[in-house]
Specification:
- With 352 residues, this protein is of the alpha+beta class.
- The chain is 35% helix and 23% strand.
Length: 352
């Protein structure tokens, strides 16, 4: 199709999220219904909710939608679906069904555009082994698309964001820099190859990464999306009562992301993420501002950040080399809680 969805005047992808500090303030004072069958609720800001059905099985549920993150409608639909499905994978679950959430400017784009968006989404649902049951649409000034996803999970195999243990090694299964690359593409700065690489990463399901995490005995996991690597890592550290060392040089990165960050090609969400993390993260003196910005960059359909027991890391990385189609790498280590920042960002990290 010849439609270019980057002409839409809005933040792209997960950069359109309500800032995390505002969201936390809203949730803080709500009197939410309680139920002993809720194993994972909103308290720890985890990726999805987990509800016990019986002694063995649980439902895992999530919802995610956002404005266009790619020029091509079909690619946008693929990425939107992969992003929504990712929350189920981040919990260790298997997606079963989905409902589409559609906001669409029917007077601006023809029906073929929405058809292509939906085709892209259903392609990814088919790949995931899930089905689209229906959905709901409204007329809106800017297009937005996403899914409410329901999956199942074994009760004793839930991957939440609160069971990191000192000594665990953090592994990131996709490269950072999607938000920055999108900004560079919209500004006509990114190359076609860089834009294509970002789209390819964002449209890749986290299914294989989740299977690897479970098979290798991972205790905790989250997916890196709109709050950036440090925003989501901070949520994990708080929930688990630990501190994290992040190694900048070991992180997988999209080509050009650091350079574009140095040019100031950042979304407003990147600045909101820096404010959200604030002094919970400290940077060694040799970490440049551009490298810092990359760690606050809002990711769309980012990778899983897996906390893997140290004696299983070699096996996990071997499996990743066999199964993953995206760049991956170790991101840091988990340490006992200590005074000071929850996260220390270093050049190479520490061993042991």
């Amino acid at each position: 199709m010849t439609v270019d969805l980057f002409q839409c005047d809005c933040e792209c992808g997960c950069a359109a999220k309500v800032p995390a500090d505002r969201l936390a303030g809203i949730l803080k004072d709500l009197d939410l219904p309680e139920d002993s069958r809720v194993l994972v609720g909103p308290e720890t800001l985890d990726d999805a909710g987990v509800y016990r059905i019986d002694n063995e099985r649980c439902l895992v549920q999530t919802v995610d939608f956002f404005p266009p993150v790619a020029r091509d409608p079909c690619t946008y639909g693929q990425i939107a679906a992969a992003n929504a499905l990712s929350d189920v994978y981040a919990m260790g679950g298997r997606p079963l069904t989905a409902l589409a959430i559609v906001c669409f400017p029917a007077d601006r784009f023809g029906p073929d555009v929405l058809k292509e968006i939906t085709r892209g989404a259903t392609d990814k649902l088919r790949e995931a082994g899930a089905v689209l049951l229906g959905g709901h649409s409204i007329v809106d000034r800017e297009p937005k698309y996403g899914l409410a996803v329901t999956g199942v999970i074994d009760r004793d195999r839930v991957l939440d964001n609160m069971h990191l243990q000192p000594g665990d090694v953090l592994v990131l299964t996709k490269p950072l820099g999607t938000g920055i690359t999108i900004m560079a593409a919209r500004g006509g700065v990114a190359t076609a190859q860089q834009e294509s690489a970002a789209n390819r990463c964002m449209s890749t399901l986290n299914a294989a990464a989740a299977r690897i995490a479970l098979d290798c005995g991972a205790r905790s996991c989250t997916d890196i999306t709109g709050f950036g690597l440090l925003g989501h890592a901070m949520q994990m550290a708080k929930a688990a009562g630990v501190t994290l060392d992040i190694a900048v040089d070991r992180l997988p990165k999209l080509d050009g992301a650091i350079e574009y960050a140095g040019m100031g090609l950042l979304s407003s969400a990147a600045y909101a993420n820096r404010k959200y993390v604030n002094d919970a993260a400290a940077f060694d003196e040799d970490i440049t501002r551009a490298e810092q910005d990359l760690l606050f960059d809002p990711q769309t359909s980012g990778g899983l950040l897996i906390a893997c027991p140290r004696d299983r890391v070699k096996h996990l990385l071997e499996r990743a080399g066999e199964k993953l189609t995206t760049p991956y790498g170790t991101a840091g280590t988990v340490r006992e809680s200590r005074q000071g920042p929850l996260i220390r960002v270093r050049r190479h990290g520490r061993s042991g």
